[in-house]
Design goal:
Strand 4 and strand 5 form a beta hairpin. The longest helix has 8 residues. Helices cover 4% and strands 56% of the residues. It has a single domain, classed as Lipid/polyisoprenoid-binding, YceI-like (Lipocalin, Beta Barrel). By secondary structure, the protein is mainly beta. It contains 1 helix and 12 strands.
Amino acid sequence: MKEQIMHWAIDPSHTSLDFAVRHLAISTVRGRFKKVRGTVEATQDGALKAIEATVDASSIDTGEPKRDAHLRSGDFLDAEKSPTLTFRSTAITPKGTNGYIVNGTLTIRDQSRPVSLQVEVTKPMKDPWGSFRVGATATGTLNRKDWGLNWNQVLELGALMVGEEVRFSLDVEAVTQVAIAA
């Protein structure tokens, strides 16, 4: 018997993509992308099969308008020429009861590179409006220079103004109208 694949839509109003980068080698700047959308495919018993997500590059928000404008510029995301960041899974490996290692391709500024995410998934549930929802948290790190995000300044004692490692956390809520077998 062929396994049934369920299609889930990422709910943008209940999803957040947060990131953290070292600043001046002494503190951490945190921010988020406010617009994330995408799809998730899973078997009826909840096993992940595929993930695709699109992030609006211009939705970056660190709470500092001048810094946000710089991050949207050609020095970093170049949001005008490359308006989206995209992720597509290439392999999903179960890890523990509700966990997965999700390998995929992240495209930023038309450069695609592999990334690996640690993903923890909740059990699906029926919401008060008759739809089914599932939640997930994904975490990972990347080196921004791998995508050509090279802008930086070397400070007097050799530290970098902006760290190269970016830590990120994605909290997702996805919804489907398809009934789930009990």
